[in-house]
Amino acid sequence: MTLTVITGMKVWRVMNDGAAAWSGLGSTMNLPSAMKEEMDTLRMELRDLKLDVTKDLMALRDTVDSVIGDLVSIIERQRSMLTRIEGLEVRAQSGSAIAAPTDPFNAFAYVGLEELEGSSEEIESVEVSAESAVDSDGSVPSDEPETNKGNAGPRVLSDEDWAAEFLEVVESHIDEVGGILNNVLFSKLWRNEIAPTPEIKKLVKAALKADETIELYKLSKLRGLYHRTGGDALGIYKRIYG
């Protein structure tokens, strides 16, 4: 019994000494210097790579934030511009007194009455010039001045003479038909070869305004009906133009 105990204690001591030797193998074993240097170099490179990756991630985050900020700024500017355009469209539609309610846009809202009247006179002048360029029989009139029956020489009329003759035509037309719109006055009744000058138009309008027997009935800002004073202007207009 004593021998067995002694033998067991020896075996236990040997096993403990072997385990301690194996456990200390990793810490006590000396590595070659070249391998240690290589491991240190790899450890430093790994640390540098981590730092570079962290720096790149931070730069990428800053770039993304900057791009997002620029996109938000662009979107806000576009939204503001769209709001202004919608506001202008609403103002243009609500401020239109000439176009129908269904018109999406009215350019007349940005043009003054004087500009429109000047454009109307220019259009009338072009129409009269085109009509006077061809006679009723289809022939082109000659450029030679018109002479009177006595062949005493060319007849030269001043603007006052042309205006006076045209006033007679206007009065005759009003007496026969009942009235004439002011915006087609010259394009409808002017039948002379020479186109009416702006001075002639001014003289005619001034004379019609001063004539107490002729009245201008306003139909809109640009249109009016010349008729004899005291007549039913609205009834005349409906009878002539429907």
Tell me the series of helices and strands, N- to C-terminal.
HHHHHEHHEEH
Gap between N and C termini = 145 Å
Computed Rg: 52 Å
Helix content: 55-70%
Strand residue content: 5-15%
Total strands: the figure is 3
Overall pLDDT score: 74
Indicate the CATH class of the domain at 113-133 and 158-241.
Mainly Alpha
How are the strands of the biggest sheet laid out side by side?
A: 1-3-2
What is the third-level CATH name, the topology of the domain at 113-133 and 158-241? Arc Repressor Mutant, subunit A
Report on this model:
By secondary structure, the protein is mainly alpha-helical. Among the domains are: 65-95; 113-133 and 158-241, Arc Repressor Mutant, subunit A (Orthogonal Bundle), CATH 1.10.10. It is built from eight helices and three strands. It has helices at residues 2-23, 25-28, 33-94, 113-132, 159-177, 185-189, 198-210, 233-241, and strands at 179-181, 214-218, 224-228. Strands 1-3-2 form a three-stranded antiparallel sheet, with helices on both faces. Strand 2 (214-218) and strand 3 form a beta hairpin. The longest helix is centred in the N-terminal third of the chain and has 62 residues, at 33-94. It is rod-shaped and about 145 Å long.
